[in-house]
Amino acid sequence: HKIGGHGGHGGNGGGGYYLYPQFYDHSCPRAQEIVKSIVAKAFAKEARIAASLLRLHFHDCFVKGCDGSILLDSSGTIASEKRSNPNRNSARGFEVIDEIKSALEKECPQTVSCADILAIAARDSTVITGGPSWEVPLGRRDSRGASLSGSNNDIPAPNNTFQTILTKFKRQGLDIVDLVALSGSHTIGNSRCTSFRQRLYNQSGNAQPDPSLDPSYAAELRKRCPRSGGDQNLFFLDFVSPTKFDNYYFKNILAAKGLLNSDEVLLTKNLQSAELVRAYAENSELFFEQFAKSMVKMGNISPLTGSRGEIRKNCRKVNRD
Ligand code: HEM
Ligand SMILES: [Ca+2]
Ligand SMILES: [Ca+2]
User: Fold this and answer.
1) 259 in Cβ contact with 245 (< 8 Å)
2) Which of 35, 204, 280, 297 is the most exposed place for a label (fewest CB within 10 A)?
3) Which of 1-15, 63-77, 95-109, 126-140 shows the lowest per-residue confidence on average (mean pLDDT)?
């Protein structure tokens, strides 16, 4: 499967190999069913875990590519991405990834990468909540480092402008279609008060709530997201169907009930993205189809392949050699 390769996006991270779904067919044929069963078990215990696992793959891929860098704990040489602004007190699901990894190490030692586990778990989380399925290209290897600064700089923040968010996506080789479709992930999962408080009290420095937020919905949110305190209080990103992967995220945006500023700006700041929001609100099949395509595209961001990187034995630390 070697191809004449150089760096860049689009399935060839510079190791000279493309990812492909059959990567573990001979080396670990049960890999995918093992991931799926542990995701299902975790989901049965707590439905939110699906959202958390989907987000981990995103926060991995946007920092040095999909290389499992987000999973590394701090150590002598590593400043963990878990400490970054987007991840601190927010990224979760690491214990589930640990459980999957230890089951896979028993089944086929040092064969399945942590980066691939994240990609498969993201797909399985989408499916188990009612979303689309897709074949996950595989063969990513794991990084031997992390980037705390990359995590702070490259992952979009909820109060970034539309243009900044789009620029951060383009830096990864993703476009406006990917941005709108992948934002549809916010059809499941939670946000902390601190991630959207500004919209409730002082959106643009004029002591007024965000005019693009429905006033009665805003009043409801203020009850558990006060001016100060309650930073960690949790709210559904999609208040209609928070554990179901559907297109209510887009319908909510049309009703001025998107939770994050980064959700609502997809409608209010750019004509093309507004058209996409309307199209996905109207047609969930169209959303599902594009979501699957964009997830594969995101999963192809700068993977380590060939002999680059390693297959970690423990997703939290690099191997010693
Ligand atoms: C477009 C730019 C994006 C911004 C600004 C953004 C921002 C956020 C924020 C602020 C939260 C809540 C975090 C907290 O308060 O703890 C969140 C949650 C979440 N995000 Fe995004 N996000 C973006 C795109 C994405 C993408 C591309 C995906 C997946 C492909 C994704 C998946 C999720 C999920 C599933 C949750 C809920 C996690 C949970 O409940 O544990 N987001 N996002
Ligand atoms: Ca990474
Ligand atoms: Ca939903």
Assistant:
1) no
2) 204
3) 1-15
Burial letters for 241-273: b for 16+ Cβ neighbours within 10 Å, e otherwise? Answer: bbbebbbbbbbbbeebbbbbbbbbbbbbebeeb
Residue 59 annotated among the catalytic residues of the structure: yes
Domain range annotation of the chain: 162-296
Tokens linked to 139: 């063969």
Cβ(208)–Cβ(199) below 8 Å: no
Specify the 3-state DSSP secondary structure of 310.
strand
Confirm or reject: Cβ of 165 under 6 Å from ligand 1. Answer: yes
Fold of 162-296: Peroxidase; domain 2 (1.10.420)
- Best CA proximity match to 117, nearest among 182, 3, 23, 44: 23
> Can you give the pLDDT at residue 13?
52
Q: Is 186 in the pocket of ligand 1 (CB under 6 A)?
A: yes
Question: 0.90 cut: is pTM over it?
Answer: yes
**Radius of gyration, CA atoms only, the chain:** 19
Residue tagged 């009043």 (tokens): 219
ipTM exceeding 0.90, yes/no: yes
Tell me which ligand sits closest to the C-alpha of residue 155.
1
Please tell me which residue, 171 or 14, carries the higher pLDDT value. 171
From the annotation, which residues make up the binding site?
60, 63, 65, 67, 69, 81, 156, 186-187, 238, 246
> Average pLDDT of 229-242?
98
Give residue-wise pLDDT tens across range 137-163. 999 999 999 999 999 999 999 999 999
Tokens at residue 52, please?
Answer: 């958390």
Percent of all residues in the chain with a pLDDT value above 90, rounded to a whole number: 94
Ligand nearest to the CA of 187: 3
Q: Binding-site residues for Ca(2+), please? A: 60, 63, 65, 67, 69, 81, 187, 238, 246
Whether ligand 1 lies within 6 angstroms of the CB of 181 is answered as: no
Ligand 1 centroid to Cα of residue 55, in Å, is 6
